[in-house]
Design a protein that fits this description.
This is Acyl carrier protein phosphodiesterase. The structure is a single chain. The protein has helices at residues 3-8, 16-31, 47-67, 70-83, 94-112, 118-126, 130-140, 145-158, 167-178, 188-205, 210-219. By secondary structure, it is mainly α. The chain has one domain (3-219). It is globular and about 55 Å long.
């Protein structure tokens, strides 16, 4: 799941460090693809660092339920098939596009149906003290936490998740993600076609998209934040 979909399960939580922890695995991956941390079994005397660890564990649990669900397997496959006409000659792997695309569509639908507030999400991130984040990353084994903190500052300032409310920006976000792997993933004509195909599939998913959030919420521990 993408950032706002993870946030959905903790949108009522007042603990900013827990909220950050629920998206930190993906943020860290974007900041430094060579760093791989596994703090989920660690315990720290600082309650804020333990909140980050708890949020990290929640992220892993939500992703586990999501990626094993029939919803994800079906819709990522169907979206992949729908996007195939726009991928002729492109180096992008169709499976990758279907996987990432359905996650971005879910973020868009949460925003456009007023089920999450991107401003509230950014407020939570801004409330987190960078010194606490630095100590967490060092404790988890990251050698250069400054790399993440620099990326994190830019992520918060850009506030680009607001753009996910526009269907055309979902396809643009797909392109930007693909550019991390492939230098020139699409031609301008392919980009235009992708925009139309993603918007069309979004309309197909809209009537049923809450099924996956309800399924995951029911699978989470009853004391899990909601």
């Amino acid at each position: 799941m993408n950032f706002l979909s993870h946030y959905y399960f903790d949108r009522k939580t007042s603990d900013c460090y827990h909220v950050l922890g629920t998206v930190l695995p993906d943020l860290l991956k974007n900041a430094d693809k060579h760093t791989s941390l596994h703090p989920e079994k660690l315990i720290h005397p600082d309650k804020n660092i333990n909140s980050l660890i708890g949020g990290w564990k929640k992220h892993l649990e939500v992703d586990r339920h999501f990626h094993s669900s029939t919803f994800f397997k079906y819709h990522s496959h169907q979206l992949k098939l729908n996007l195939l006409p726009a991928l002729e000659g492109s180096p992008v792997k169709p499976f990758f596009l279907g996987h990432v695309g359905i996650e971005l569509i879910l973020d868009n639908l949460l925003l456009t149906n007023n089920l999450v507030n991107a401003g509230d999400f950014y407020d939570q991130l801004n409330d987190c003290n960078e010194e606490v984040i630095y100590r967490f990353l060092s404790f988890a084994g990251m050698r250069n936490p400054e790399i993440f903190l620099s990326f994190f500052d830019g992520f918060k300032r850009s506030r680009y998740l607001f753009s996910y409310a526009e269907s055309s920006q979902v396809a643009y976000a797909l392109k930007r993600i693909c550019m991390r792997v492939w230098q020139s993933p699409f031609t301008p004509e392919q980009e235009e076609q992708l925009t139309q195909l993603v918007a069309a599939y979004r309309l197909e998913v809209q009537p049923v998209f809450m099924e996956i959030f309800d399924l995951i919420q029911a699978a989470l521990p009853t004391d899990s934040a909601a």
